[in-house]
Amino acid sequence: METSQHSEAESQQEKSDFDEVIDTHKSWLKSVLGLGALEAKLWVTSSAQLLALMCGVIFLLLTTWLLIIASIAALAWSYGFSLVGILLTATFVTFLSSIVLLYLVKKTLKSMDFTRTFDAIIPTDDE
Question: What is the tens place of the pLDDT at every residue in 41-74?
């Protein structure tokens, strides 16, 4: 009889220790998830700010490009070039610039090959 009571007390103690470990792990996991959520909120806020700043930079670069073209056109016009020729030349230069940028975009997209990353994460049978 005494052995069964001792065994019950021991199992109760083991249950309470196990419950305590579970509660500790739940608390730890909740803290980690809370920290992750806080980091995600900070990242989203920083990303939104970065996106707004990048839009501002793009707008200023576009404005600068247009002002450079306008300045060159005004200078050429002051030297007696025809306005139609100046506008056609500016259009051609802008079009040529866009083709060069499009080529660079395609080249960059081709170089963004994730097969090496996938092979490092998920190795194939050959390796």
Answer: 878 788 888 888 999 999 999 999 889 989 999 9
Give phi and psi for 80, each to the nearest 5.
100, 10
Identify the CA nearest to 74 among candidates 94, 63, 60, 90: 90
DSSP 44-66: HHHHHHHHHHHHHHHHHHHHHHH
Whole-angstrom Cα distance, residue 27 to residue 6? 31
Do 89 and 72 touch, CB atoms closer than 8 A?
Answer: no
The H-or-E segment that residue 121 falls in is: helix 115-121
**CA-to-CA distance for 117 and 123, rounded, in angstroms?**
10
* Phi and psi angles of residue 83, each rounded to the nearest 5 degrees, phi first: -65, -40
First to last CA, the chain: 63
Q: Which DSSP category does 81 fall into?
A: -
Instruction: Catalogue the E-assigned strands of the chain.
Output: none
The b/e string for 67-78 (b: 16+ C-beta within 10 A; e otherwise) is: eebeeebeebee
